[in-house]
Design goal:
Layout: E1 14-16, E2 22-24, E3 32-37, H1 44-55, H2 57-62, E4 65-71, H3 75-84, E5 90-93, H4 98-103, E6 106-111, E7 114-119, E8 123-126, E9 132-136, H5 144-154
Parallel strand pairs: 3-4, 4-5
Antiparallel strand pairs: 1-2, 3-8, 6-7, 8-9
């Protein structure tokens, strides 16, 4: 696993959202976008992380940042997750983990003694020109939004 670093060009991608509509990273040219990768919708940690972003989305938007969450869940599950948690940002389905691999977040993980391949919880702030501005890889699900907000409002 080799995650993208600040200064790298973000891979362009097109993925279905929670409503089955195609969303392209190129649609966000000219604005900053937080692309956050999370392992699985409707699990405790991912719910805490998503709700933190939901509750701070106004502040993120005031700082000029859009939010895209990416997991390998099917669009139908993402739709249920968004509905259940009243999420106010776009969730994208990367079922074949192609985009996860392009960003370098797909790799070996260990959980409860089992080793498997999955998504590592890493977020990328992409600048208006499509370049990785900042990588967030050291946070807890409960403070992810605070760390992102502190960075985007400090500039």
């Amino acid at each position: 696993m080799n995650p993208l670093k600040a200064g790298d060009t973000a891979p362009t991608f097109s993925l279905p959202d929670q409503d089955g509509e195609q969303v392209n990273l190129a649609d966000f040219r000219g604005q900053r976008v937080l692309v956050y990768f999370y392992p699985k919708a409707m699990t405790p940690g991912c719910t805490v992380q998503a709700c933190g972003l939901r509750d701070n989305l106004d502040a993120l938007k005031q700082a000029g940042v859009e939010v895209l969450g990416i997991s390998t869940d099917k669009p139908e599950k993402l739709s249920r997750f968004a509905e259940k948690e009243l999420l106010n940002f776009t969730l994208l389905s990367d079922e074949d983990h192609r985009v996860c691999e392009q960003f370098g977040v797909w790799g070996e993980k260990t959980f409860m003694g089992k080793t498997y391949d999955g998504i590592h919880r890493i977020s990328f702030l992409i600048d208006a020109h499509g370049t990785v501005e900042k990588v967030f890889d050291n946070f807890k699900t409960s403070n992810h939004h605070d760390i992102v907000l502190a960075y985007v409002t400090a500039a």
